[in-house]
Structures are given as C-alpha cells and as structure tokens.
Design brief:
This protein folds into 3 domains: 3-48, no CATH class; 80-140, no CATH class; 165-224, Photosystem II 12 kDa extrinsic protein (DNA polymerase, domain 1). It is built from 8 helices and 5 strands, in the order H-H-H-H-E-E-H-E-E-H-H-H-E. It has helices at residues 3-15, 19-25, 29-52, 79-83, 107-113, 172-176, 183-196, 213-219, and strands spanning 84-91, 97-102, 137-140, 165-166, 223-224. The strands form 2 sheets. The protein has a 3-stranded mixed β-sheet. Strands 4-5 form a two-stranded parallel ribbon.
C-alpha cells in the first residue's frame, strides 16, 4: 500500500466512531427477539382482558310452560238410579214384593209387574195413571193404617174455682188470680218452673223470689203439684 493510500485510510478510520460505541448504538439480535416476544405476550394479555371484560347477556329464564287442564265430564255415580225406580207392591196382587221399573212408569205398570191384581180386588182408591216415585209403597186392595199422632202435652182441665191450682200447668193469668200474687210474681213462678223443671212439692214454691213465709201460708191451700 502506498503512503498516500495509507494516509487516506487513516483519515477515514479516524472519522468513524469507536467499535464499542457502535456496538452500544445497535442492539444485537437476541435483544430484539426478547423485545418481540414481550410485545406479543403483552398484546395477548391485553386481548384476553378485553375479551373477558366484554358485556355478556344475562341468563335468560325459561318461559313458563302453560299447562292445559283436561277436564273430563263427570259420569253419574249410579246410572241405574236415574233411569229406573224401585217400588214395593203389596196387598192383593199375585206376586207382592219389590219391583224395578223404568223411570216414568205408572202405578198400573207396577201392579202388572207384580203379577196383576187378584180376582175381585178393587183398585178404585188407586190412581193407576200416577207416575211412580222411587222407594214408595203401593198397597193394592188394602187400607193404609192411619198414622197415630204423637202424644202431645195433656191440656190441663179447666180449674174449678174451689180446687187447688196445679203449679206445674198453671199459666201466668191463672197464677195472677191467686190472692197476693200479681202479674210480676206470677211470671216469676213460671220462670222458676222453666229453669228448674216441675215443682216436686208445694213447699218448693218458697224458693221463688218474693214468696215469704206469710205469703206461702196464704197460697199453700190453694195450690198443688
């Protein structure tokens, strides 16, 4: 190399920065790769955060299912009860007893179902055209017994002015007629009888308010039980 060329080379090299400064100014390739990886990870983390933070629709409640009630017509418990009648035919028929006939049947049909009437039997008292009633009794040629009325209270006989008054049947007006007994005391006697039951003795009259010993002495011969 000529001296002139060497001088020019030294001039160029003097103008260049030192090698250490060049190394510091330009990073090596391994550092670049690390920075790229860190950038990719940061971008992935940011994307994941944005994905998780996005608004989501709430859970939709299931719509209630409409239930259709299937109703069935109620059948009568005893169809035969509405389509037939049962009656008791008794008396002067050939086959007395219980017979079953269609609903709407007549008395004449019930007698026929019992074998008909015996010869010489009169059916005049019966209304043969009447419709039957379930459970009834049809007497043919016989008289129904007259029901005996239930015994009621025996009315008290008219009081003899001279006879003692029965304390258990006397009315307020009758007691009012007794000497020394007014309407108020007469009502007390009737109320006492209603609360305590029948008088068991004449002396029990003294338990009624307002009847002392003197008034009881006046009433005793005029009352009885």
């Amino acid at each position: 190399m000529s001296p002139d060329a060497r001088d020019r080379l030294h001039a160029v090299t003097d103008r260049l920065p030192p090698p250490s400064s060049r190394l510091r100014a330009s990073p090596d390739r391994s550092n670049i790769r690390v920075l790229v990886i860190i950038g990719v990870i940061a971008a992935a983390v940011a994307a994941g955060y944005l994905w998780l933070a996005r608004p989501r629709p709430g859970p939709t409640a299931p719509l209630p299912t409409a239930t259709v009630a299937h109703t069935r017509p109620t059948a009568p418990l005893n169809p035969a009860a509405s389509s037939s009648v049962v009656v008791h035919v008794l008396g002067k028929v050939k086959h007395p007893g219980v017979v079953t006939l269609p609903s709407g049947s007549r008395v004449a049909e019930a007698i026929k179902a019992a074998g008909g009437v015996r010869p010489g039997t009169q059916t005049g008292p019966l209304n043969l055209a009447r419709k039957l009633v379930d459970g009834e009794q049809i007497p043919v040629g016989v008289t129904r017994p007259t029901p005996t009325p239930a015994p009621g209270p025996v009315p008290s006989p008219p009081n003899d002015p001279g006879a003692p008054l029965d304390l258990n049947t006397a009315t307020v007006d009758q007691l009012d007629d007794l000497p020394g007994v007014g309407p108020v005391l007469a009502q007390r006697i009737v109320d006492f009888r209603a609360q305590h039951g029948r008088f068991r003795s004449v002396e029990q009259l003294q338990d009624v308010s307002g009847i002392g010993a003197r008034r009881f002495a006046d009433l005793k011969p005029k009352v009885r039980v």
